Amino acid sequence: MSRRKIAVVITARPSYSRVKTVLSAIQKHADLELQLVVAASALLDRYGSAVNYIEKDGFAIAAKVFNVLEGENLTAAAKTTGIGILELSTVFDNLKPDIVVTVADRFETMATAIAASYMNIPLAHIQGGEVTGNIDEKVRHAITKLADYHFVASEGAKERVVKLGENPNFVFNTGCPSIDLAKEVKENSATLPFNPYEKYGGVGAKPDLSKGYLVVMQHPVTNEYQNSRKHIEVTLEAICKVNLPTLWFWPNVDAGADGTSTGIRAFREQHDLSNVHFFKNMEGKDFLQLLQHSDCLIGNSSVGIRECAYLGVPVINIGSRQNRRDRGANVMDVDYAQAPIEIAIATAIQKGKVKSSSIYGNGKAGVQIAQLLAELPLQFHKTIMY
Amino acid sequence: MSRRKIAVVITARPSYSRVKTVLSAIQKHADLELQLVVAASALLDRYGSAVNYIEKDGFAIAAKVFNVLEGENLTAAAKTTGIGILELSTVFDNLKPDIVVTVADRFETMATAIAASYMNIPLAHIQGGEVTGNIDEKVRHAITKLADYHFVASEGAKERVVKLGENPNFVFNTGCPSIDLAKEVKENSATLPFNPYEKYGGVGAKPDLSKGYLVVMQHPVTNEYQNSRKHIEVTLEAICKVNLPTLWFWPNVDAGADGTSTGIRAFREQHDLSNVHFFKNMEGKDFLQLLQHSDCLIGNSSVGIRECAYLGVPVINIGSRQNRRDRGANVMDVDYAQAPIEIAIATAIQKGKVKSSSIYGNGKAGVQIAQLLAELPLQFHKTIMY
Amino acid sequence: MSRRKIAVVITARPSYSRVKTVLSAIQKHADLELQLVVAASALLDRYGSAVNYIEKDGFAIAAKVFNVLEGENLTAAAKTTGIGILELSTVFDNLKPDIVVTVADRFETMATAIAASYMNIPLAHIQGGEVTGNIDEKVRHAITKLADYHFVASEGAKERVVKLGENPNFVFNTGCPSIDLAKEVKENSATLPFNPYEKYGGVGAKPDLSKGYLVVMQHPVTNEYQNSRKHIEVTLEAICKVNLPTLWFWPNVDAGADGTSTGIRAFREQHDLSNVHFFKNMEGKDFLQLLQHSDCLIGNSSVGIRECAYLGVPVINIGSRQNRRDRGANVMDVDYAQAPIEIAIATAIQKGKVKSSSIYGNGKAGVQIAQLLAELPLQFHKTIMY
Amino acid sequence: MSRRKIAVVITARPSYSRVKTVLSAIQKHADLELQLVVAASALLDRYGSAVNYIEKDGFAIAAKVFNVLEGENLTAAAKTTGIGILELSTVFDNLKPDIVVTVADRFETMATAIAASYMNIPLAHIQGGEVTGNIDEKVRHAITKLADYHFVASEGAKERVVKLGENPNFVFNTGCPSIDLAKEVKENSATLPFNPYEKYGGVGAKPDLSKGYLVVMQHPVTNEYQNSRKHIEVTLEAICKVNLPTLWFWPNVDAGADGTSTGIRAFREQHDLSNVHFFKNMEGKDFLQLLQHSDCLIGNSSVGIRECAYLGVPVINIGSRQNRRDRGANVMDVDYAQAPIEIAIATAIQKGKVKSSSIYGNGKAGVQIAQLLAELPLQFHKTIMY
């Protein structure tokens, strides 16, 4: 019997980190053949090209698709998705996968979902059913309605996917595969095993990290994109004020990314950020190790909600981006306002690590998902359950 | 105060017929400005170009978008959607509508939904919440998850949209606007007021219609597209056998359309269809008048489920296309099999007209929808209700 | 040393026939690796899908690209080209060819030329420098200006390419590769070795071919596309009138193709064509054998100008499509007018075969081109020679 | 008689500056109606959005087209062109222009040329026939082969276009419209009438300009794009060394732009550029005034070859970008090498202004071109002249 061909489409650096253990598990599975498609911002330098890490990690790439349209507005997001559909159709037509896997809810993942479902290729969706209260939510639930199999990350997510009219027989709480990596990191990292300045370069000051440090990662929020500059400035002011060793990560490509990036760049020119170092990107595992040893994470990254819950790292979650996502005890939510951010940082440092939570999984998601991909009946025909 | 700009995107002839009264009501509304966008197969001759009727009906067209990719496979449907997004984004960027309206569930309507929702333009969806059990259902419910306002056609549909997690305050059972036209036809057509052969040409025999006649309209079913030729042949055999005056309508463009069309063409060459006339297309109103005076409608068109319920015309509904749609007492469901089709035709003729049902509306949908478009708060930010 | 990767893009059935010997020669060449890309109408059934022949002939296909936009207007031609560029860029990005080869002058070949030249991949053009006086000419000469190597089919073509400012060191009169096949046919076909009705089906009468027969192949002319129906009717009238056994071939996809196709279909319905059989398509070699044994070819196909010169088959060339192309003694040019066509047919039958001409090559083009592709310096940087 | 509709497609800031007087002349002409289409990098902020200037100058925009694909490689240039064709076809289909005008030779202008010529819309090309010896040359001459009217900028260009097989009756040496503006500036600017730091912001030092200053504008060279960083560093070193007041302009979007931009950014971080100010962009007229009062222009901009010839400003032209373009006595050509650049700067300052040359026009191009657009016969059918 020939092996099932599983096409996984990676469109951004964080998605790659998130599903790396799924890719490994597919690759190792005797009945599966991995067809890895790398597209969108995962190919672009200025957002920290994921493709380099992918190749370094030893995954063969079946096809690359450049489809990010440039522009400082939302039109570009729509067009990027349109081009993605056009090109992924050709890719699927040539690769002939048995199942296509799409990850999470970035706008351009819709291209994967539409191409596969329109071509009657069974579609698996990783990380449906979550709630955030932004444009990602439209995308995420729409993809649920296009997908045939659902590998969700929490019980709450599972319930929601079933309420959305999906057949419960095809909704699986595997936990989030990002926790697989968090588990490995948690179990094996007594100390930070690399020097981030040496390994990743970056720009800015090089504060001493031995007494603890902050990590910042703040993305623009799609439906507030005209405010992204203002929002980032609030965080910059707060960080400037607390003046602790800080490692700051640039945002992903997105409508509004330029607001955030411009904001950071302008602030740097006008202020002396003598305790802040900026990184463009970092391998997922190294980033988790960095978090594991940090005092807290600040911003609006889903890493704070997810991996940090497992790691027990305190998180200052700013603004609406992770709005309604299920969260563990490690998260403090604050508005876009300087004082509350400063207070939350002080609190986090004072309290220190919190108890590990398996709300987003127990670290075996990759293997479980691969096994399901090997066993599930191939199907692309479904109907709403009510 | 300036009028709200309402962009309605029409992508196929039947969609135009369905929402014609909405377009009129928008055009007449003092607070609204209609921006009519005509795209996809609505522009193509070989499927009965809707654009001619639109212009004849006096609607000004704000933009035309050719985006149908040619091909006898499902890849073409995906690509058509991708091109649609790419181009509709530009159209919306130039027209700057306050609300975008998308109709029903054809695959390419997803392009309208994605372009609008990604560009933060409030999206209204007409005819969500229905159940059919085919690929259209994936599209339909995915669009529900992208839309901000829902104008549904029945109570069942309304319940489903709310179950899908939508805010009940923005789900309105306006009935289907196609019933508006059916109402007008029902109230004003004592006899068939035109000669279809003269007015619409077409090919084949010209049977005498004065003693009653059958109407056939059978589309390919997307997820069974390799069977579309076999399916159409069964119907052709049955019609050939009952040998009553029959008016047959060609199918719309769709993956598999070529199977259906080829089947009809081949059958015509090999058989003497002395009682069958073929039409490429017909204005919506004329088609309803034709149905109103027919013995029954045969095939899988949604017109049978919807307008015929109101008109009280018996319908032989073949196969899975309208699978789980709510239906009135006028519908007899049969499989793709010759004998059952023949028996159902005999039954329908014997019983005659059935009682009018308002299951899909009471004939005032157009005006209601326009009024809602004028009054609803403009919003594009939503979250799932559970 | 690794073999040079040569990507040849085939976009239509006639282009495939034309360069088949080039493909074979590349495949056989020890220093070359063939990357065959099949796109546009070469993939579509309704124009006689070339892809089936390609696979039957044993060529492996590296990528397929569906990019034909449907529409009865010239916009579709432009859009097909745009989509072609978008997708071929991805294909080239993934295949990483050392040289890209584009064939002749169909509108969509421009997509190949632009994708390759913009990506700094050396571009070889087969059949530049010819003159026809239609839109093809704009395309053909524009491609010459994008190409780095020119494999032309006649001395006249070579002179023109050099006059266009190209470096004479990279302009090679290899003859047309279609003559390679004509040579083989001419040397090996004492009698027609197959029954065309049995082998190719088709529709219409099945006239006896043993006493001679006519072959018709008439394409729409791009810049006269609104006249294509009128033009085809003139030819149909003439063929109807002379009433000799006739084998008629459907036209290729093209803006206006529908005018030609519709004209043929309508004429068939209204006339008794008891001596005419219609074919959708035929393998290149079989078609040449059919021509070799025919009385004459009628229409506007370039086969009449090119292969028939070598075969010595009389040709009635109608209208402007081959306007200024160099031609042998076998060609009689006539206008779109019934009487002259009838007279020319009578003359052709009376005179019989003419002397073979090598104006378009001596039958060794394929091997020569492959050898040049293996030897030429790789370059994509050029400047006009004056 | 209705006015002729002239669609001009502007895809970049410098193209807009170049043809501004043509746009004005069309707008003022009684028999013409201007349809201005703004696309590609002309819409993007990070390259100095031309669209703002266009609107400020009072031109109404008929359509905007976002089509720049993001990417640090040449694939993006090809794809940008493909998307441009797709979208411009729709734009032309909706605007129905009588003539389309395309400007110069940037890669994406090919999209305008293909969309128009494939749709049988007469195409006018401004600035064909020039020689530069880079990828632009492929584009430029290919567009000449697609265009129906040629408005060239010099006698040398006219000769070349005619040699390319174009009908001399449709090749007009109107001079370059950029000289129209240069003429106005030359005649009316006794002193620099604005403070560039105040009016345009920018970053870096603010050297005193009253004793003279240098202007630098260096673009990446498409077919050397991997070297663009190295090349820009040589210039940076030289400017750093001569240490005179310098105004530096960022490059346009282009494959390789990131190499140049990155090079500048990195150099700034590592060196003290106390005499250099950086501008993102400047209105065309202000830029010419700045040049008019400068000591010399350094880099590879065509402004140096063209407007500076008329203004009599010395130019240090670096590298291959303007390779074979006709030039006046004001130009000194140097290689990518620090010492020669430094020497040339010294020489330029010592010699001072040179005599004005009308090699690229006498300042009346805009009015002449508008008049030709009003009078030329509408045609889209041509054949090579040999």
Automatic annotation (TrEMBL), chains A, B, C, D:
Keywords: Glycosidase, Hydrolase. This is UDP-N-acetylglucosamine 2-epimerase. PANTHER family: UDP-N-ACETYLGLUCOSAMINE 2-EPIMERASE. InterPro entries: UDP-GlcNAc_Epase, UDP_GlcNAc_Epimerase_2_dom, WecB-like. It is an enzyme of class 3 (hydrolase). The lineage of its organism: Bacteria, Pseudomonadati, Bacteroidota, Flavobacteriia, Flavobacteriales. The gene is neuC. GO terms for molecular function: hydrolase activity, acting on glycosyl bonds. Residues 25-373 form the UDP-N-acetylglucosamine 2-epimerase domain. The keyword Hydrolase applies. Pfam families: Epimerase_2. Its EC number is 3.2.1.183. It comes from Flavobacterium polysaccharolyticum. It comes from the Bacteria.
